[in-house]
Design goal:
This protein is mostly helical and 88 residues long. It has five helices and two strands; from the N terminus they run ααβαβαα. It is flat and about 35 Å long.
């Protein structure tokens, strides 16, 4: 939960975010009753600060999206990986 506290406390500077050179996927859920992950608003703020990034919102899922809707999580992750992987 340290990363959640860091996001909420804005302990990452814009320079920290700017150092991220890899493709970025920010995945969050529509409903997070436990505050275990970034809210949609937090995810949008991070997206603004780190530059080009895809924001995915898993609808009708809460903080346990891997358990609640693993197929939607995997669809988002796999599509992102396919789009950002070079063929050898």
């Amino acid at each position: 939960m340290t990363w959640v506290k860091a996001l909420r406390g804005h302990r990452f500077s814009d320079a920290d975010y700017a150092r991220i050179a890899a493709p970025r996927l920010i995945l969050t859920t529509e409903w997070d009753r436990w505050n275990a992950g970034p809210s949609v608003a937090m995810a949008r703020e991070v997206q603004k600060r780190i530059g080009p990034a895809r924001l995915g919102v898993i609808e009708n899922a809460g903080s346990h999206s891997l358990l609640e809707s693993p197929e939607r999580f995997m669809q988002s992750a796999e599509a992102f990986i396919r789009e950002n992987t070079c063929e050898v």
